[in-house]
Structures are given as structure tokens and as C-alpha cells.
Amino acid sequence: MALINQTPEEYYLGPDGVWDSGDESYGDYQFVSITDIINNFIVAYVGQDKLITKVKRTDVAYWAQRAIQEFSFDTLPQEKSIEIECPPGLYMILPQDYVNYTKLSWVDSRGIERIIYRTDLSSNPNAIIQDNTYEYTFDQNGNIPLAAESETLKRWNSSSSYPLGGSGGGNFDLVNNPDLLALYAYGGRYGINPEQAQANGTFYVDKINNVIRFSSDIRGRIVTLKYVSDGLGTAEDMTVHKFAMDAIEKYIAYSILSTRANIQEYLVARFRKVASAARRNAKIRLSELKSDLMAQVFRNQSKWIKH
To answer: Domain boundary at 228, 248, 277, which?
Structure first.
């Protein structure tokens, strides 16, 4: 039976029959749902005279979800992106299905994304409230109250990330400015950190409050966050590219065999190698390495290359 169950008209117009109205499912043919993966695995691997004679569907479903979660970080293309205008508070709330970021940038007037670099020079610690003798204060329950905002964050929000000039202004006096002496180690090293060698601003992830905090240079700019999800947030996320189907199935088979009693060790070791090789092949297939793109990159670097 054919896998395409739509006419070209139904594909391009969608259920409402209107061109580009937002209800279309463009490009979905390259993905397979987790339900189909579970069904296909049970058909191919479970039964009499097969690798696994008997297994519960819930076990297969569990390991299928674990496979999607593990593969989303480095194999499956599960990158998402959101765009906001940076508020006066200079922060962005982490998305609901956020796991880790891959890129942050702000958009200039031409639509070009300017990369924002992460910095480790600041943070947002919990600020303990002290009295006029610098002793800790306590509330009626005996707990130490915390300030609403740390002094570190206040100073971070009020300063520029590139004090040597540019659009952020600043003092150019490296000799008589102790803050710049400490920041740039003037005369003490050759080179500079990446976050200090550009004028696009900086950021850091505030893991206490689960927000991303930007330097004052980003105030009012359009910020784009590209991040990684674990692939299990919604039903729409729980899909697998067809190039990774074999790797997912081999991962499920190895996981089931490795957690069962009375399974020969050679069989577990065999499927460990098979699952690893299948995952490596999936990475290569999904990496989108193309000779013409590689040649273009080399030409941009003044390299002479034929293809």
C-alpha cells in the first residue's frame, strides 16, 4: 500500500482548500510518528521465531520515547526557535520545552542575525538581606530573606558589554580605568576573549530564575533564540525523521535485550554494536553534508577547490 494518502491538491491547499492558509502540513512525509515506530517494531522484531518472542507494548513505548529523547540532542534535527523584542528588564523567559540553547542573536534592519556571545563574567546570585552591621537578617520563621534583585544584576543591567567604545560608548582610558584593567588584563596577555571582541552584546543563562539575561546593549532589539527540545513536549514533537528510523529500532531492541534476564551476553553485545553503528549512520545522513556547500565554504576562504 502506498504511503502517500493525499492528492496533490489536498497537500498544497490543506483541509480548508485555501492556498497557504496555515492548516497545511508541508514536508511531513519525511517524518514518522512514534505510534508508527512502535507498531513497526512489534511487527518486525516481536513474535515467534523472532529476536524478541514476547514484550509488552508499554515497554516498547517507553524505550521509543527514551530513544527520541536521547537522539534529539545530537542526532535528530529537533532545533526550535522563537523571536521576541527584548524588554526593559533585559531578560527572556526560557521556553516551556527548553533543554539547552544552540544560538542567540539579534536581528538588524536588514534581517541579518548578529550572534550574541555568552559570557561568564557575571551572574545573578541570591542576594541576602543584611542589617547595618552586615549581619544576616531572619524572618519570623527563622529563614534568611532574599532581596528581589541582586546588586550584581543591577550593575549588569546598567552597564555596556563593550566599554571600549562602539555604539555603547564608554571610556577609552585603559591605563587609568581599573575596571577595564581587570576586565581586559591590559599588558598581561596577548589576545582577547570572544565575548569581548565584538559589539553585539552578551548574555548568560540565569539558572536560578530560568531566564536568559542580556547586556544593556540588547535593550529594545529583536532577539532570536534557537534551542534544543527533547522531542517529547507535544504529540507533534514526537516524530522521527525517516533517515533515523533504523537507528531508533536498533536502540529499542538493544534496550529491551539489555534489561532482560537470561539473555546471552553475546547477543546484548552484538546489538550494542549494531545500535551504535545505526546511530552513527543516522548522524551522517542527517548532517546534510553536501559537496557543493563544502566547496562554497572553501571558496569563501580563498581556497582553490574543484568538484
So the answer is: 228
Task: Kindly state whether residue 223 falls inside one of the protein's structural domains.
Answer: yes
Q: Alpha helix locations (H) across 187-264?
A: 245-258
Count: domains in the chain? 2
Question: What is the DSSP annotation of 12-78?
Answer: HHTTTT-TTSS---TTGGGEEEHHHHHHHHHHHHBSTTSSBS---HHHHHHHHHHHHHHHTTTTS--
Between β-strands 91-93 and 211-214, what pairing exists: parallel, antiparallel or unpaired? antiparallel
Count CB neighbours of 82 within 10 A: 12
Encoded amino acid at 190, one letter = Y
Does pLDDT of 167 surpass 50? Answer: no
- The C-alpha cell of 186 is what? 591590559
Instruction: Report whether pLDDT(225) > 60.
Output: yes
Q: Which residues does 68 contact at the CB level (< 8 Å), separation at least 6? A: 34, 76, 230, 231, 232, 238, 240, 248
Of the pLDDT bands very low, low, confident and very high (cuts 50, 70, 90), residue 214 is: very high
Rounded CA-CA distance 189/185 in Å is 7
Using alpha carbons, list the distances in angstroms from residue 17 to 4, 9, 114. 18, 8, 39
- What is the residue range of 282's domain? 30-76+237-300
User: Which grid cell sits at 150?
Assistant: 541582586
**Cα first-last separation, the chain:** 40
Beta-bridge partners for 100: 228
Which of residues 287 and 280 earns the better pLDDT score?
280
Q: How many residues does the chain have?
A: 307
Q: How far apart are the C-alpha atoms of 251 and 232, rounded to whole Å?
A: 17
Q: What is the pLDDT of residue 199?
A: 77
